[in-house]
Design goal:
The chain is mainly α and about 290 residues long. The chain has helices at about 15-30, 35-60, 70-90, 95-100, 105-115, 120-130, 135-150, 155-165, 200-215, 220-230, 235-245, 250-270, 275-280; strands at about 175, 190. The two termini are about 45 Å apart.
Length: about 290
């Protein structure tokens, strides 16, 4: 691996993660929506980057005739790894023959909109952010309409069956107001009473979950990773240290300091331990002296 003044590359995994974790997370956010999905994908990408003595990282070469920054190279590698992860998790869907013959933009619109059920605007954003293809809203809509018209009845049935099988089950805590006929936003509902008859308990648990995830997102990536491995996944300090390539003492320090930051954020938002318990999150954190959160 060649080093240049413009692209100083670290030689140790710990230094590499400190320097480029934000860049890896930038790519991960493009491919995963929820916090848990992002962390799972981040760990997968890190494992692959670390494989074989960081072979993928060390393969970078600076070529004067075709200059490329290391962060650009790393972004492409991470995107390819993210695609591999999603294909392995969800299974690779082969294009229909009449779709395979179209240009790249049409094939991607088919994947995101017709195959995965994303909205046209979200699909347009993914074309721009993931693939650098910039199309106007009207053009995306026209392309999607032409694609849908070209599909046979059998192909449409296969797409609908796939979407239905991937649909997440609806929580019984969200009950639509059909009795009163009141207008509600899609996905809205009436929270059911909690176990102790508190009608606002489910609302508080939802807000507690949002606050907790926001606090975790505010942590530096290395500290957040240590915290999640230590308290959410239940790894010991030596195991966490081995995963992030540091000592058990340093791993414990990172997790403990991250935990204090999260607890302080929860206190500022007046989130109590029962709110986290009702959201199923309190077990992620150790009980120290009966402190909340």
């Amino acid at each position: 691996m060649q080093e240049t003044p413009e692209t100083p590359l670290p030689t140790a995994w710990e230094d590499f993660l400190d320097a480029y974790a934000d860049e890896i997370f930038r790519v991960v956010r493009l491919f995963a929506d929820s916090y848990d999905d992002r962390m799972d994908l981040f760990l997968f990408v890190c494992d692959r980057l670390r494989d074989d003595g960081m072979r993928r990282v060390r393969s970078f070469r600076h070529r004067p005739e075709a200059p490329c920054r290391f962060t650009t190279y790393l972004g492409v590698v991470c995107k390819n790894l993210a695609v591999d992860y999603l294909r392995a998790r969800d299974g690779r869907f082969r294009h229909f023959r009449n779709v395979e013959q179209r240009d790249e933009a049409d094939r991607l619109i088919f994947e995101y909109h017709l195959r995965d059920g994303r909205s046209l605007e979200e699909s347009r954003g993914l074309l721009r952010d993931r693939h650098g293809i910039r199309l106007g809203s009207e053009e995306v809509s026209q392309r999607a309409a032409r694609l849908e018209t070209s599909l046979s009845a059998s192909q449409r049935w296969r797409l609908l069956s796939r979407l239905f099988s991937r649909r997440r089950p609806m929580s019984i805590d969200s009950v639509t107001d059909t009795a009163s006929g009141a207008g509600m936003e899609p996905g809205g509902g009436i929270p059911l009473p909690g176990e102790w008859g508190d009608p606002e308990g489910s609302l508080r648990s939802i807000e507690a979950q949002k606050t907790l995830h926001a606090a975790l997102e505010s942590l530096p990536p290395r500290q957040r990773l240590a915290l999640v491995l230590r308290y959410r996944d239940g790894l010991t300090a030596p195991d966490v240290g081995c995963t992030i390539n540091t000592t058990s003492i340093e791993a414990e320090r990172l997790a403990r300091e991250g935990l204090e930051v999260v607890r302080e954020a929860l206190r500022r938002c007046r989130v109590a331990r029962p709110d986290l318990e009702s959201a199923g999150l309190a077990s992620c954190w150790p009980d120290r002296g009966g402190a909340e959160a």
